[in-house]
Specification:
Keywords: Cell inner membrane, Cell membrane, Hydrolase, Membrane, Protease, Transmembrane, Transmembrane helix. This protein has 402 residues and is mainly alpha-helical. It is 65% helix and 6% strand. The protein folds into two domains: 242 residues, Rhomboid-like (Rhomboid-like fold, Up-down Bundle); 151 residues, Tetratricopeptide repeat domain (Serine Threonine Protein Phosphatase 5, Tetratricopeptide repeat, Alpha Horseshoe), CATH 1.25.40.10. The two termini are 27 Å apart.
């Protein structure tokens, strides 16, 4: 058996929404699912006849024999699980908090516990909740495309949690997952495995392959399509937050650019690269930064020398304007993937993100990337120093919690 039991590094914030989701799922199991599982359905419930009909009960079948095999929870799931043939807005959400057994619940909650905190830390609490629910709805609808006529209820949080895994896969590629290897009595140990390897195995081996072999999961009783749909939804939203201007940490740059344009229209037609370089050479870094941040297009930004862009980034860091420095470094990385100074951009992004408690794990990734690609002793020394400091803080926090 191979079972993920933890990940590293972890944020310093408290993932309140992740705890809330864990608590709600567990509470529903103990307060609703478990008690109803030990009760017989109300024989006068009009839904019972519809349920039995969809179950395939036909002809001369002893009523008592059928009745003895079902529970009140079966009927509850039939009512509040999502049935693709009879979709409803209510069951799109209620189905996300119902589970088919304690192992089903345990597996889902384990993955949410391990991977949810980093994603909530990066997104923020309210956006995390919305993305979780949105991924769950998207996963359910994606699965329904393959079983459109089915009256079998779909339940479980795994589609929404797969969305969380999609976020994690894109945003935390350098994190490590602690995996329990339990091959008793020969091997019982834990190993650290790269997060993308663990999540790639989950997506491809645990879901895509069975999905293809069982006609979308219709023959297996496992909604592989929902897992795949949720993962893709999380991956897509994470990519959009990284790449689409106006999202994530780019709001400050937009407002800054508006103010700079209003304050400095006189030189808007000046040749940007030459003007910026001249201002930097003359020590007028603020003017150079104003001009660069007003550039609208990729081609205009790429025309400015890399050294000048990085000098502006360093100035913004010194001024505490991380809301401007972060998108500057991210755009440098995205627009100049072969630049010889790319390691300095990764380092700058790490330094800027490190100042935001919600983005400390992203900062860790940027420092690692800078360390991997640099040939500069100075960049290596700074990256290693910050990585050691972050790891030391993590160890102290773990010691305090224990």
């Amino acid at each position: 058996m191979f079972l993920p039991i933890g990940d590293y590094p972890n944020p310093r914030s408290t993932p309140w929404v992740n705890y809330l989701l864990l608590g709600v799922n567990v509470a529903v199991w103990f307060l609703v699912s478990l008690p109803l599982s030990h009760m017989r359905p109300d024989i006068s419930d009009p839904l019972l006849l519809e349920f039995l009909y969809d179950l395939g009960v036909r002809g001369a079948v002893p009523a008592q024999a059928i009745y003895d095999q079902i529970s009140a929870y079966d009927l509850f799931v039939y009512q509040y699980g999502f049935r693709p043939a009879e979709p409803s807005l209510l069951t799109l959400f209620t189905s996300l908090f119902l589970h088919g057994g304690w192992l089903h619940l345990f597996g889902n909650m384990l993955f949410l516990w391990i991977f949810g905190n980093n994603v909530e830390h990066r997104l923020g609490s309210v956006p995390y909740l919305l993305c979780y629910l949105g991924a769950g709805v998207g996963a359910t609808l994606f699965f329904s495309l393959f079983v459109a006529g089915s009256t079998t209820p779909l339940i479980g949080a795994s589609g929404a949690i797969s969305g969380v895994l999609g976020f994690y896969f894109l945003w935390f590629p350098r994190n490590m997952v602690r995996v329990l290897i339990f091959l008793f009595p020969f091997i019982v140990t834990t190993v650290l495995v790269p997060a993308r390897l663990v999540l790639g195995f989950y997506l491809l081996i645990d879901n895509v392959l069975p999905f293809l072999l069982t006609r979308g999961g219709a023959e297996s009783g496992v909604a592989y399509g929902a897992h795949i749909g949720g993962f893709l939804a999380g991956l897509g939203v994470a990519w959009g937050l990284e790449k689409v201007p106006g999202l994530n940490l780019w709001r400050g740059e937009r407002s800054y650019r508006r103010g700079a344009v209003e304050a400095g229209d006189g030189d808007r037609h000046a040749a940007a690269p030459a003007f910026i370089h001249q201002q930097l050479a003359a020590g007028r870094i603020q003017q150079a930064a104003d001009r660069f941040l007003r550039l609208e297009g990729r081609a205009e930004r790429r025309a400015v020398a890399s050294g000048d862009v990085l000098a502006i980034g360093a100035y913004l860091l010194d001024q505490g304007r991380t809301d401007l420095a972060i998108p500057l470094y991210r755009r440098f990385i995205a627009e100049r993937p072969d630049d010889p100074d790319l390691d300095r951009a990764f380092l700058g992004a790490g330094l800027a993100l490190e100042r935001h408690p919600r983005h400390i794990t992203s900062s860790y990734q940027y420092f690692l990337q800078a360390l991997d690609m640099t040939r500069s002793d100075a960049v290596e020394e700074v990256a290693r120093r910050h990585l050691r400091a972050m790891e030391a803080r993590g160890r102290r926090r773990d010691a305090d919690e224990s």
